[in-house]
Amino acid sequence: QVQLVQSGGGSVQPGGSLKLSCAASGSLFNIYTMAWSRQTPGKERELVARIDWMNGKIYCVDFVKGRFTISRDFAKNTVFLQMNDLKPEDTAIYYCNAVADHVNYWGQGTQVSVSS
User: Fold this and answer.
1) Cα(12)–Cα(42) distance, integer angstroms
2) Most Cβ neighbours (<10 Å): which of 58, 62, 87, 99?
3) Alpha carbon of 41 to those of 92, 93, 94, 95: distances in Å?
4) Which of 11-20, 57-66, 95-104 ranks highest by mean pLDDT?
């Protein structure tokens, strides 16, 4: 079992920045990847960025490249999502995700709102 606790998020004006954190605990030795996804009402959850837990290899979707950065603190079992140049269309609930032993674990979700 893996537990994920998210922090960060909130409201910001367009062009602003926010940083999300996700702390993992539990059975961490079999984590393959950690990722951030987001969801808006009426839409499916979509992947934003993913990081390979052991080697740090990163994948970001095109619509956040150059604006969002995923990183990890291996010693603190924490993954981050630094979001810069936020746009109104980035408004969503953001979820942290870990894959361990072929099981998906999810954080509690955190609201990010971008508006003027």
Assistant:
1) 23
2) 99
3) 8, 9, 12, 14
4) 11-20
- CA distances in angstroms from 109 to 2, 9, 29, 36, 83, listed in the order given: 15, 10, 23, 10, 16
Q: Per the structure block, which two tokens stand in for 88?
A: 């109104």
- 75 φ/ψ angles, rounded to the nearest 5 degrees: -70, -30
List the strands of the sheet with 18-26, edge to edge. Answer: 2-8, 18-26, 78-83, 68-73
Instruction: Find out whether 115 and 14 touch, Cβ atoms under 8 Å.
Output: yes
Q: Is it the case that residue 74 has pLDDT exceeding 90?
A: no
Give the whole-number percent of the chain exceeding pLDDT 90: 78
CA–CA separation, 68 and 48 (whole Å): 9
Structure tokens at 38: 């987001």
Whether pLDDT at 38 is above 90: yes
Mean pLDDT throughout 25-50?
93
